[in-house]
């Protein structure tokens, strides 16, 4: 249900995002005008999607609402979306709290790894196709949000900078790409799935690569390493203690998850990927939220 509409919506959203990026960059010296770019492109996108699904504008809005709530008996969708909204609300409240205290720590930044991972796990277990759609749409929203912040587009830029710059990671430049890498890294296996629309779709262990590498492993490495890390790797600021924490936490998560998979992966591949990803993380200085899940996905 809604398979073709989902695909059409993703195409329209990605093309629209690319168009907004292009025109916004051209008009970057006039940030106030970028609001008009958003309004025009989004209006055209709604019209284009309406034509693709052969509906009126109001019919399209009704379709979009139906796509969110699912079928009449889809209480799983309602509960899942409610859970997602709760995770988003908690993240916003947490963001406001950290802004109020004026500083962020490694633990604070890894909090978002937890909420995104919980959203992903609930999505792939209860509604993988809808989660696939949302992953692409969230990616577009994250990119456009960073565009508004980076170009300081009024009135959004000041608010976004106030609440987001405090979470700036040492890996970030003027662009805050870490949240985008986090989203892509965790949802990458689902976004690349070719059979997600199949009624008998069953997740494989590889679909949890992002959660294992970033949601669990990288988070434990950062928390343990920053708190108890004493033995530094040669040529790196990362610690042996953090690497061991990542390896054993990844290994534990993957072994437990593997017991619930209909087509489980081999124990050898699980041990190998936990070791390889942990060693690579020890020397990564950028894009770990994307590179680690991608490597884990390829090996699993």
TrEMBL record:
One of its GO terms (molecular function) is dolichol kinase activity. One of its GO terms (cellular component) is endoplasmic reticulum membrane. Keywords: Endoplasmic reticulum, Kinase, Membrane, Transferase, Transmembrane, Transmembrane helix. It is an enzyme of class 2 (transferase). The chain crosses the membrane at residues 6-27, 34-58, 78-99, 111-130, 136-153, 174-193, 205-228, 240-261, 267-286. Its main location: endoplasmic reticulum. GO terms for biological process: dolichyl monophosphate biosynthetic process. Coiled coil: none annotated. It is a multi-pass membrane protein. Its EC number is 2.7.1.108. It is found in: Endoplasmic reticulum membrane. Belongs to the polyprenol kinase family. This is dolichol kinase. It comes from Caenorhabditis nigoni. The lineage of its organism: Eukaryota, Metazoa, Ecdysozoa, Nematoda, Chromadorea.
């Amino acid at each position: 249900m809604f398979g073709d509409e989902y695909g059409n919506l993703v195409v329209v959203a990605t093309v629209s995002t690319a168009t907004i990026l292009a025109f916004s960059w051209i008009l970057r010296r006039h940030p106030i005008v970028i609001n008009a770019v958003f309004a025009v492109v989004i209006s055209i996108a709604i019209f284009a999607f309406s034509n693709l699904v052969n509906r009126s504008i109001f019919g399209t809005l009704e379709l979009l609402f139906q796509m969110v709530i699912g079928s009449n008996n889809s209480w799983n969708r309602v509960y899942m979306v409610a859970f997602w909204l709760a995770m988003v609300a908690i993240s916003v409240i947490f963001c406001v709290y950290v802004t109020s205290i004026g500083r962020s720590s490694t633990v604070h930044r890894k909090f978002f790894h937890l909420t995104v991972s919980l959203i992903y796990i609930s999505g792939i277990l209860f509604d993988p196709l809808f989660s696939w759609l949302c992953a692409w749409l969230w990616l577009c929203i994250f990119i456009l949000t960073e565009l508004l912040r980076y170009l300081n587009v009024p009135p959004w830029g000041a608010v976004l900078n106030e609440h987001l710059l405090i979470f700036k990671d040492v890996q970030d430049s003027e662009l805050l790409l870490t949240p985008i890498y986090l989203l892509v890294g965790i949802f990458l296996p689902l976004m690349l799935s070719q059979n997600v629309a199949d009624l008998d779709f069953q997740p494989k262990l590889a679909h949890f690569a992002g959660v294992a590498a970033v949601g669990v492993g990288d988070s434990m490495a950062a928390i343990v390493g920053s708190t108890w890390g004493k033995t530094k790797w040669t040529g790196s600021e990362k610690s042996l203690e953090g690497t061991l924490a990542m390896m054993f936490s990844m290994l534990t998560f993957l072994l437990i998850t593997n017991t619930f998979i209909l087509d489980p992966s081999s124990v050898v591949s699980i041990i190998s990927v936990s070791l390889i990803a942990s060693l690579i993380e020890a020397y990564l200085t950028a894009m770990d939220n994307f590179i680690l899940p991608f490597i884990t996905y390829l090996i699993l």
